[in-house]
């Protein structure tokens, strides 16, 4: 299977640069994965596609303001860092630009000394380990100095940090938002519950690898980045009960999907567990847990496009994307949504 098989032509102006004022007013394309039939509506009408007894599974990770700008203490050179994952205490693995100025031993000053970081090692893919020093609470300092790490294809500045968070974001740790969940408002979630649909919460801290392009020609040779996930006992029980009672498990976003598929055994039972996952889902994969998926429109040749193709079939997905371009849907993180059922 070739990476090039997942290419489609996307006009630049269809990449959404700003979130809509009303989260639920984005458009929604419904794709029937059995027939390939397409329907066009608005996200607030998602209720029309849900049934009592279904279970929506959301990823309640919270994006941290992980982009920091500082100055190298010795030279004053501007350094940009992106916090990727906390290794231990105040040591973080970070992406640093420009890398050539960030050698072990270098000290970076942020916010006029409110926070300092010393580069202690160079690790995989040129990332740096940075030991931070500060007084007070790290998260509060980060909130003061950091910016939301928007994806590289978004060039507009985000006016309100909360618009790159889901309304149910709870556990801090992501470098990117689980964007399929951005369409839900508290009111819409309340309506979902009122119609007898359960909502289960899992956590997967989204890494920047989610935007990393597939650089190999042969899809199967691509190595996925690892991300930390948690499925709690009560949530596993809720999802398993849904399956047992004949309801559908509907993942809200590819991150919820990857979490569920990582936590589910070959017997189809979701286990309460936590750990790192490198699961890579592409056509040919046999889904163990999810029945349907709410998702955004993904980048050409990306692992996320491969995942949705595994669920609905590559031909149906590529046709749906062709129609989405013709119908001027908005693409990527702040774009419109698709419901595959």
From TrEMBL:
Gene Ontology CC entries for this record: cytoplasm
Q: Which reaction does it catalyse?
A: 7-aminomethyl-7-carbaguanosine(34) in tRNA + S-adenosyl-L-methionine = epoxyqueuosine(34) in tRNA + adenine + L-methionine + 2 H(+)
Looking at the record's lineage, which domain of life comes first?
Bacteria
- What biological processes does GO assign it? tRNA queuosine(34) biosynthetic process
Please verify whether the record's keywords include Isomerase: yes
Which UniProt keywords are given for this protein, alphabetically ordered?
A: Cytoplasm, Glycosyltransferase, Isomerase, Queuosine biosynthesis, S-adenosyl-L-methionine, Transferase
Name any one GO molecular function: S-adenosylmethionine:tRNA ribosyltransferase-isomerase activity
InterPro entries assigned: QueA, QueA_dom1, QueA_dom2, QueA_sf
State the organism named in the record.
Answer: Oliverpabstia intestinalis
What protein name does the entry list? S-adenosylmethionine:tRNA ribosyltransferase-isomerase
Q: Which Pfam families does the record cross-reference, listed alphabetically?
A: Queuosine_synth
Listed EC numbers: 2.4.99.17
Carries keyword Isomerase?
yes
Pathway as given in its UniProt record: tRNA modification; tRNA-queuosine biosynthesis
Subunit details for this protein? Monomer.
């Amino acid at each position: 299977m070739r990476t090039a098989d997942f290419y489609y032509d996307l006009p630049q102006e269809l990449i959404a640069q700003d979130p809509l004022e009303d989260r639920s007013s984005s458009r929604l394309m419904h794709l029937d994965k059995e027939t390939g039939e397409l329907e066009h509506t608005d996200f607030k009408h998602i209720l029309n596609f849900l049934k009592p007894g279904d279970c929506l599974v959301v990823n309640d990770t919270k994006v941290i303001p992980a982009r920091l700008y500082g100055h190298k203490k010795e030279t004053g050179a501007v350094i940009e860092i992106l916090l990727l994952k906390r290794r231990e205490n105040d040591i973080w693995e970070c992406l640093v630009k420009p890398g050539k100025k960030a050698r072990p031993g270098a000290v970076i000053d942020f916010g006029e000394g409110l926070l300092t970081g010393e580069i202690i090692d160079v690790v995989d893919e040129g990332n740096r380990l940075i030991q931070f020093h500060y007084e007070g609470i790290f998260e509060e300092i980060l909130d003061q100095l950091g910016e939301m790490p928007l994806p590289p294809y978004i060039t507009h500045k985000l006016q309100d940090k909360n618009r790159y968070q889901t309304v149910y974001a709870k556990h801090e740790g992501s470098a990117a938002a689980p964007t399929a969940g951005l369409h839900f408002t508290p009111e819409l979630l309340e309506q979902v519950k009122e119609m007898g649909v359960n909502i289960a919460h899992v956590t997967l801290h989204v890494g920047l690898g989610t935007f990393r392009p597939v650089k190999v020609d042969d899809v199967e040779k691509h190595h996925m980045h690892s991300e930390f996930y948690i499925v709690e006992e009560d949530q596993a029980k809720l999802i398993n009960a849904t399956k047992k009672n004949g309801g559908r498990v509907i993942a809200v976003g590819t991150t919820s999907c990857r979490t569920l598929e990582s936590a589910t055994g070959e017997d189809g039972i979701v286990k309460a567990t936590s750990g790192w996952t490198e699961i890579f889902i592409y056509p040919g994969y046999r889904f163990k847990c999810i029945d349907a998926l709410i998702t955004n429109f993904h980048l050409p040749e990306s692992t996320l496009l491969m995942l949705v193709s595994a669920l609905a079939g590559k031909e149906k997905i590529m046709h749906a994307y062709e129609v989405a371009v013709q119908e001027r849907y908005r693409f990527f993180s702040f774009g419109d949504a698709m419901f595959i059922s």
